[in-house]
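Hi V.,

You were right to ask for the full record rather than a summary. Here it is.
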Amino acid sequence: MFAVLLGGATALLPIYADQILHVDAIGFGWLRAAPSFGAFSMAMWLAHRPALRRPGRALLWSVAGFGVSIVAFGLSSWFWLSLVALFFSGVFDNVSVVVRQSLVQLLTPDSLRGRVTSVNQIFIGSSNEIGTLRAGLMAALVGPVAAVVAGGIGTLVVVAAVARVVPALRTVPPLDQLRPEE
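Predicted structure:
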């Protein structure tokens, strides 16, 4: 949730397309589509691979990769680099989504799965919109580049904090071995 809250840069894509990358509507469309292409590519790759052997580590690394991608996008003034950075933000975000959704489904007891999933969806849905607000307010205060880069760095700080505070996340067993505790 915090990665999307801090690292969400898509709200500022119109500013980047117009004022920083100097591309037209077609270029803007490619920028908007790049994260989806990345997410789709990773989804297809993950669908044809065995279950993740170290999902906790994959989660931490993917969120860190998302943060790095956002920083790279934020600092880029070159369209093609921006496109690649956004593509990889989608790649890393998809790994994170797959791991998080799998952990919720695999570790939540059947009697609580609906409630846990609904609360999870509230956080997922609201973090995108709140992240958009954060990006817009920061862009108004410090400019779009600083807003995006600070969000990406904030994402990396959150990953480091979670890795430190929840060390058990690094040792989560393979997804195909997880079962809920009743």
